[in-house]
Amino acid sequence: MSDDRPNLITFGASPFCEKARWALDWHGIAYKEIGWPAGVHQILARSKGAKSTTLPIMLDGEELIQGSGAIIDWAEEKAQDSDRTLTRLGSLRVEQRADDIIGIHVRRLYYASMLPTSPHLTKPGLFCNSSASHRMIGNIMWPLTWRIIMKRYDINPKAAAESRAKLEGELDWLDSKLSDDRSYLVGDRFSRADLTVSSLLAPFACPDELPAFRDIALPDALVADTERWQRRPVMRWVKEQYEAHRAPIGLEL
Would you say 180 and 238 are in contact if contact means Cβ atoms under 8 Å apart? Predict the structure, then answer.
């Protein structure tokens, strides 16, 4: 495969990065995935002219596309098969709600459950697929990086309980939407709403097609959340979406 493929910059275990990755794979767009370690990613993002330091970022020549939603938009424009479009009436509204609540609080719950007492458990998911030189710098920066993450995401003694409650409410909402045995959240075809919700809940659904989250060592509280939530209809639905619409992931580095 030629070296002119666009680069997808990720944290390997990030649900938002999985959302972008899935959209690119869905449309058959060839790309190379590159990991930037947490902390180092801020320096590298600024060096590329990004408006913020969040990942994922798509680098296509001189073009920079930042954020999972923007990368889906970009993939939709590049798509060769219009029948596989992901954007349908109502899908953007569901996607935005999932991003703003589910995605934010899945990430915060993970950080709140791990960083205060076991920051080393968070590190593998934020460093995977990165180069040896970037990993070395990331290791040097890590004692400061994880404290910056805690401040940025307001990781306080109540954070885990707050985010867990937010997610419980969204899982109730999704279980209610799926109670009529529908296959998709919007319309009668797979859309970016389904892709988004499935990606963002993957850390707790643990689908076979995405082993990254199963391979992360979790504290007891997150293990309990995972086991409890996997009994919910929406988590079974997420696994069905992965099985039906997501090929097993094998990263080419």
Answer: no
